[in-house]
Each structure stands twice: as C-alpha cells, then as structure tokens.
Amino acid sequence: MRSTSNPAFRNLPVGGGYAGFQPQAQGYQQPGQPGYGGYPAPPTTGDRPMTVDDVVTKTAATLGTALVTGVITAIAVLGGAIQPWPPMIGGLIVGLVLSLVIIFKKTPNPALVLAYSAAEGVFLGAITGVFEAFVPGIALQAILGTALVFITMLVVYRTGAVKVTPRLTKWIIGATIGAAGLMLINLLLSFVGVDLGIRDAGPLGIGISLLFIGIAAFNFLLDFDMADTMIRSGTPSKWAWYVAFGLMTTLVWLYLEILRLLYMLQSSD
C-alpha cells in the first residue's frame, strides 16, 4: 500500500487490512472450500470485507453530520444568537482532540468519527457565518466549489486520467508537508508582528490559496487510492469509517481554502 499525506490513512498497515488482517486468515473462504475445522460461519456485518457502498454510506453520514451542525451554527452566528468565536475555537479544539484520538487509537469508532464531523461542522459553520456576513452568498459558492473539486478528482481517479504512481505520491506528500510548514512559519511570525502577506487579499495571497487548493485536490487521489487498496485487499467493513474520516480531513482543508479564495477575490473588487 502506498504512503499518503493524510494522517488518517498513514496508520494503516502496509498491504491492506489491519494488524496483519488477511481475508483467508479470518476465515474467509471461497464457496466450496473448507477452512480449518470445517466450513467457516458466514461473515458478520462487522468483519465482512469492505465494499464501495460501505465507503459511500459512511462518508455520506460524516458529511451529513458536518453539514447539519455547520448550517445550524452559521444561521445562529448570522442571526446574532451566538458570537462566532466560542463555537469557532471550541469546534477547532474539540475537532483537533478527536482527530488525534482517532488517529492514534488506530481503531475505527463510528461515534468518534461522527463526533469529529459534528465538531468540524461547528467550526466551519462559525467561520462561514463570519464570511457570509461580509459577502452574502459566499457560503453556497464555497460548498459548490468544494463539491465540484471533489467530484472532478473522483472522475480523474476513476478514469485513470492521472495515475497514482510512487513518484506522484512522493510529490503530493512533499507539497502537503511544505504547505503545512509554510502555514506554521507564517503563524509563528505573526506572533512577533511579522506579516509574510501570504494570507492577504493580494496577488501573493491569491496565488498561495490557489496552490493550496491544488495540493488539497491532489490529496484526494491518494485518499481514493488508499480506499481502493483497502477494498481490494479485503479490509473489514468497519474500517470504512476510517476512510470517511480521512476524506473528511481533506474536505475541511479544501473548503477553508476555497472559502478564503472566494473572499479575497470578491473583497478586492
């Protein structure tokens, strides 16, 4: 299994499955082939091999949870029912903590994944409410833009227009690490009053946002390839929640960058 820049997938073992999981080792046999001690019992929902439907349904559940909490939070912020900073900071911290628990626990937990999605929805909803107050209609544009990029990259992957090769994988991982490092440096310098201008509404800031959107989009190729490998290797269906979590992390980054780009483009008019 190739490496990936997504921390959710990087904890999965090489070769698919988890903790050395292999379909035959878990009692999966072809019809008519007896296993050790006779024919194995039919696999249950929890240990049967993952399918594309599993990934689709679990991803839809996580996105739906984030969308509901996000819309409710954005409406509350726009209506003046709540201030944007408490849910923004609270959602960010809770989401970060839950993501670390999910990553290092190395066990697919639907409750944790859905809680993470809800927290990210609150975080994104608060930010969206602030941007929407300045630029009406920007929220819908950002959502549609994110969906368009996601669908486009899925089509690109499924048609094989761009092959996920080891060289491309290394390039995407390096670009992602570079982007994260640049943002960290910019954040640290801002504490001492130094502004690099990479997040301002100018040519440099717009260029950086476009670059980050491109890197996030290409990360989907690695996510899709990793999920595809897990399905083909017979990983248990419960790990579809882990796939959904990994896709959610990339979607959050992409949405934030598209939202920022739209704001810079429209505020500079």
How would you explain this protein's 3D organization?
68% of the residues lie in helices and 0% in strands. By secondary structure, it is mainly α. The protein has one domain. The termini are far apart. 38% of the residues are buried. It holds the Pfam family BaxI_1. Keywords: Membrane, Transmembrane, Transmembrane helix. It comes from Actinokineospora fastidiosa.
What structural keywords apply?
BaxI_1-like, 8 helices, mainly alpha, globular, transmembrane helix, 269 residues, membrane
Strand percent estimate? under 5%
Tally the helices: what do you get?
8
Tally of domains = 1
**Largest beta-sheet details:** none
Tell me roughly what share of residues is in helical segments.
55-70%
Quick rundown:
With 269 residues, the protein is mostly helical. The protein is built from 8 helices and no strands.
List the helices and strands and how they pair.
Layout: H1 7-10, H2 52-78, H3 85-105, H4 110-134, H5 138-159, H6 166-190, H7 203-232, H8 240-267
Helix pairs in contact: 2-4, 2-8, 3-4, 4-8, 5-7, 5-8, 6-7, 7-8
